[in-house]
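Complex record, three chains
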Amino acid sequence: MPYLVHSPEDRAAMLAALGVSSMDDLLIDIPRSLRLSALELPAGLSELETMAQVKSLAARNRVFADRLTFRGGGVYRRFIPAAVAAVTSKPEFYSAYTPYQPEASQGTLQAIYEFQTLIAELTGLDVANASMYDGATAVAEAAMMAHIHTGRNEIVVVGYLHPEYLEVLRAFSEGRGIKVRRGTEPNSKTAAVVFQQPDFLGLLVDAAGLTENAHSLGALAIACVDPISLAIVAPPGEYGADIAAGEGQQLGLSPSYGGPHVGFIACRKDLVRRLPGRLIGSAHDSAGRRGFVLTLTAREQHIRRERASSNICTNHSLCALAASVYMTYMGADGMRQVAEVSFKRAHALAERLAALPGWEMAFPERQFLNEFPIRVPKASAVLRKLARKSILGGLDVHRWFRELKGVLTFACTEVNDARALDELVEALA
Amino acid sequence: MADRRYTKSHEWLTVEGKNVTVGITDFAQAQLGDVVFLELPAPGRKLSAGETFGVVESVKAASDLYSPIGGRITAVNEKLKEHPELINSDPYGDGWILKLELTGELPGDLLDEAAYKKVAEA
Amino acid sequence: MTELLSFEKSRQNAHGPRLPEADVESPGPDDVLPRELLRAQPPGLPRLSEPEIMRHYSRLASMNYSISEQFYPLGSCTMKYNPVANEAAAALPGFTDLHPYQDEETVQGALSLMWRLEQALCAVVGVDRVTLQPAAGAHGEWTALRMIQAFHRSRGEARTEVLVPDSAHGTNPASAALSGFRVVEVRSGPDGRISLADLESKLSPRVAALMLTNPNTLGLFEREILDVAEIVHATGAMLYYDGANLNAFMGICRPGDMGFDAVHMNLHKTFTTPHGGGGPGAGPVGVKADLVPFLPTPTVERMNGQLKLDFKRPKSIGRVRSFYGNFGMLVRAYTYIVAMGGDGLTQASLDAVLGANYLRHEVEGLLEMPHEGPCMHEFVASARNLAPRGIKALDVAKGLLERDFYAPTIYFPLVVPEAIMVEPTETESKATLDAFAAAIKEIVTQADESPETLHEAPHGLPVGRLDEVATARHINAYLQGQSEDPILRWKKAP
C-alpha cells in the first residue's frame, strides 16, 4: 500500500510489545454496532494508474492559452516567474507545519514577515497580517474589524464590489446581526464604507472622496484593492483609507479554478489589535540574534476562545510565500512595468472593440486600468464565436447585475501580446 | 494601608472611605505570566459590581478584569501603558489598575486574605 | 545562522527582471489618469537580482523543519507524509490553468473531480452531501454552525446556545460565537471523556448543537457516543463533528453512523495535502439530509449526464468564500484517496492507532499518563513528574527540537497540566518511534542530572529561545505611540 511504512513484522512486533493479540484489542472503546466491515470505496491503485486517472480528468477540461484569455473578474492570467514555483515547491516550505516552534520555523516566519512588510509597502498602510484565505474573506473580516472598532452594526457597500465578495460579506455578517446595504448612502450608524478600486467591472472610483465621506460620518473606509494596480494608482494609505483588503492571486499564483489563492489585509496602526489572523514580529534570543515569532496571539481564538473577534486559525502561508517571491522578483519597477503594459493593451483593445458595429463602452465617461465593461450585441453569441477560435472572451456580468444586460468585461495583461489582440478583433469581424 | 480584600475572580481592593483601589492578585499575575498589555477603560465610566472593565494579556493568556464593586472610575494607572510588567513585579503596589469612587455599599461576598488563599489554592 | 531580510539586502542598482513592452500605440496611465488617482510614492519593495533572490529563499528554506526531513509528533495536527504524486497532480496544466468563470461544459473534468471527491468523503464519514468550499477547518466549523442555525430558524426555532466541551480546540467556541451563538461549556469527566451528567444538565430547548470531536482531544474514543447522540437529538439539538481527529478511524467507523449531523474534515490532516507552513488547507463539511438544503452555493449537481454548478438554492446560507474552494487542495486529496483506496485508508487509520499505542507504551514511565489506555491515534502525557526538577513541558519540547524532532503539541488540551500531546501518524516507521522514545528518555535523564542545561535548549538551531515577551511589549509600545519601531514589519532606519 502506498505511503504506509510498517511491514507485517513491524505490526506484529508492536502488538506484541503492547501485549495484545490484534488491533481489535486496541479498538475496544468503539461500540460493536459502529464497526464498519469495509469502506465503500474502490481498492487503491498504483501511482501509474492513479496518475492516469487524474490526468484523464485534467484532459476533460478545456485549457485556453494564456495569451488568448481575456476573462478576469477577480482572477487573471499573468506572467509567473519560474522562481515562484522553484521556491514554493521546496519541501522545506510546503511540507512545514504552522510556525508555532520559532526555532524550527525561521524560514517560514521570516518569509511571512517579509510578506507583511511587502503588503504594508504596497498598500501604504502601517501593518499587514500574515494573509487570509482569499479576497472575499479578507474584505468580510475587514468589515468585522470595523464593526468591533466602531460598535456600529451596518456596513455600506458602494458601487460594483465583486459580487462573490458581497455574498461572503453577507454570510459573515448575518450570524452576527450586522446589516449589509448596497446602493444606499452611509449615515451615522455606518461602521464602514466598503468600495473596490478598481471595481469589479474594472472602473476607477473616487476612492479619496468615498474615504472622506466615510470619515465625516465616523465610519471607517475599507478599500478592496488590486495589488498590481497599486504600482500605478494611489494606494489606500495615500488617500487615508483605514483598512485595505484584497486578493493576491495576481502575485504569482495560477488561476487553478479559483484557488488556493491568498487574501491580504492591512490597516492603520490604531486598528492593529483588531486585525484577525496571524501576525509575525521580530524578536531576539539571549545571544542577541534576531529571529521572528508569532506575536499578539492573545487576540486569537486559541486563547480568547468565544471572545475572539475572528475564528481564523491559519493563513495561506504557502500562497503568501509565492506572492513574496513574486513581489521581490518584480520589484516596484517590474510591477509598474506589467501594470503599464496591461493598461496600454487594455486601452488599445477597448478602442478597437468599441469601433465594432453595435459595440459601445458601457461607461464611456469612466476611467479604467486593464479591465473594462463593454456593451455588445448578443453576449452569448460573441463568447461562443470566440471560443470556437480558442479565445476565452470577456466575462458576462449580467449574471450578477440585472442592469448590465449585454455587458462583457474584458481584461488584458502582459500575457495578451499585441498579436493576441489582433486575433481577438479578427475573430469578431 | 487599609486592609486588602479579594474576589473569587482574583482581583484585590483596598477601601479608604469612598475611595477604592483595584488590582489583580499575586496569584493571578503568576498564573498569567509576563503581562504585555492591558486594555483599560477611561476615567469617568460607571461600573457595577462584577462588570468586566478590561482585559489583561500575557504572551500565552488573556483574562477579563471584573470590577469588585459598583462605582465610578476616578483614575486609571497610566504607568501600565508603558510598563505592563508592573503587574508582575508589584501587583499590590505600583501595579494597581483602577481607582473608583464607591456607590452604595461594598458587596457582601468579598473575601479576606485567609478565605482568598483557599480559593487560590483550590 | 541568520539571514538578512530581502529589504536589507536590497541594492539601488540591482538588475530587475526583463519584461515585455506594450507593443501597441496607446497612451500610458500618466497620460490618461488625473494626478490625484496616481500613486505619489513608489512602494518600497526590495531590489534584488534573480540569483540573489533564489539564494535568499534557499537559505530561508534551510532554516525550517519540515515533514520531509523531520518527525512531527504534533498531537491533533496529523502531520503525515505529503505524497509527491499529489503535487504532480495539482500541477497539471489541465487544473492550474482553468479560469473559475469558464463555462461549465469546458470544466467537466474539474467538476467531475469535485463530484468524485464529494462521494468519497461521504463514504468515509457517512453523510449525504459535502461542501468543498471552506478554506480551512475553522472556516468549515463556522460554515456547519451557520447551516445548523439556518435549519433551526427554518423551523421557527430560535436556538441560541452551542455546547462545547472544555477540552475543545479554541476554534470551536470562536466559530460558535461568531455565528451569533452563546457558548456553554460542558465538562469532561475524570477519564477525559464528556460527562453525560453535565451534558444533560446543560441541554435545553435553547441549545442548537453540541460540538464534539471523537476521539476527543485526549485521544480517547467517546465510548458513550450513541447515548450522547440520543440525548442531544431528543432535545431537538444537532450534533456537530470536529474532524480534527478523523485520522483515527477511517474505515473503522463513521461519524455519520454515530449520529453526527454535520462533519467537518481537514484535507491537510487526514488526506495528506501539505500544511504549507500554515495553509492553504481545506475544510469540507459533510451533512445529513436535513441540512442539505442549507449547503453553501454553489453545489455540484449531475444533470443529463453533465455536471453543473447549482447556484439556485433558496435555503442556502450563501457563499463562504469566493469560487469553489481551494481547488488545488481538492486535487491533492482526491489523488491521495484514489491511490489509497478503501483498503489503504482503513490500513492507514489502523497503523495510526497502532503507532500511537506503541509509542505511548514506550514513553509510559518516563512521563505521566493521566488517562488509561488504549488510546486511538494520539495520546496526551504530562510532564508534571518533572516539575520538582523545575522542568516544564516547554523544556521537553525544546529538548526534542535540539534532538532533531519537531516538538509535540504542548499545553493543550487545557484540562491536562503540562500536557504533551503526541500523534505519530501512520507514516512514521517503528525505527522513528523508537528513536523518539529514546530521545524522551534522554531528556528525562537530563532533567534528573542537569536540569539547568535543558532550560537553555535548543542549541544548534538558527536561533535560540526568542524573547516573545519583549516583542509583544515593544509592539504594544508602538501601537500606543511610544515607539517608532513597528516590530511587525521592517522599516528603513531613519
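Note: Chain A touches chain C through 204 residues (CB under 8 Å).
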